[in-house]
Amino acid sequence: MYDILDEIASVERVSTPRGVSTVYIGYLGNEEVAFLPRHDKDHSIPPHAINYRSNIYALHTLGVERIFATNAVGSLRDDIKPGTMRVVTNFIDLTKNRPTTFYDGQEIRLRDGRRIKGVVHVDMTYPVCPELTKILDDLLLERYDYARPPHVIYACMEGPRFETPAEINMLRILGADVVGMTLCPEIVLARELEMCYASLAIVTNYAAGIQKRVSHGEVLEIFKRVRPQVIEILKEAVKRVPIERKCPCKDALREYYRIFP
Fold first, then answer.
1. pLDDT tens per residue across span 54-88
2. How many domains does the chain have?
3. How many CB atoms lie within 10 A of CB 80?
4. Of the four listed, 45, 166, 172, 252, which is most buried by Cβ atoms within 10 Å?
5. Is 187 part of a structural domain of the chain?
6. Residue 188: strand pairing partners
7. What is the chain's mean pLDDT, rounded?
């Protein structure tokens, strides 16, 4: 997805309290967007080493309110086939060593000048933005022959290795449909800054034990094949985003607002 933009207007190196992130400002179709390659442009950063906090805070600093993420996933179910797309509606976080919150004692300054300090327990009852998720739902149902809304539960693993067959069996028992390495803590951090988040999951393989072997080369090959459809979906999704946010994401921190001198 690294050359997804039709035109790049600027490259921003954004300094945040958690590090520095590079964001590409440009156009997807006729819409101005910010594009952040989480693995960097040369795919040099493995999933467990991504600075998720810096990335999300950088987007927030630039004025981004809504995020459409793409996540390559392995399928845990026979009926979720490689080369197809799904919409994430819930997740199970089984990562181990990643900083998972902004609220670890340090004061956080929001873009509009509000400050938050202390313990914050952000609500994840509805993990994804309902407005953005409906847009993706509608697009996939319009363009592809899904018998029902293409929703999946995403299990996020630490990586960078692929999972064992025993781990995949565990995830199926827990109720996961797909497995990947990049959704968490990204989705939680977005909620912690009152940003909307939706994930378009691209199924690139069957998970370990369902097919004989899982390889990174296979993942890239499948993603390359489905890439034109992914870009088509994202271009149309961005066009359908309403100007005003009416979802609960924008009020996720309401009970924690503090005014400091």
1. 999 999 999 999 999 999 999 999 999 999 999 99
2. 1
3. 18
4. 252
5. yes
6. none
7. 93
Amino acid type, 131: E
Q: Is 182 contained in some domain?
A: yes
First to last CA, the chain: 44
What is d(CA 67, CA 94) in angstroms, rounded to the nearest whole number? 22
H or E element at residue 55 = helix 52-61
pLDDT tens for 85-135 read 999 999 999 999 999 999 998 889 998 888 888 889 999 999 999 999 999
Question: Does residue 29 form part of some domain?
Answer: no
At residue 261, the pLDDT reads 40
Tokens 């509000």 belong to residue: 114
Q: Among residues 43, 73, 82, 110, which one has the least CA distance to residue 254?
A: 110
The DSSP code sequence of 217-241 is HHHHHHHHHHHHHHHHHHHHHHHH-
| Separation CA 37–CA 248 (nearest Å) | 27
pLDDT of residue 6: 93
169 φ, ψ (degrees, to nearest 5)? -60, -40
CATH number of the domain residue 171 falls in? 3.40.50.1580
Within 175-215, residue ranges assigned H as helices are: 186-192
Q: Which domain holds residue 206?
A: 66-256
Residue 142 maps to a domain: yes
- pTM above the 0.70 mark? yes
Contacts for 206 with CB less than 8 Å, ≥ 6 apart = 74, 75, 82, 214
Q: Above 80 in pLDDT, residue 215?
A: no
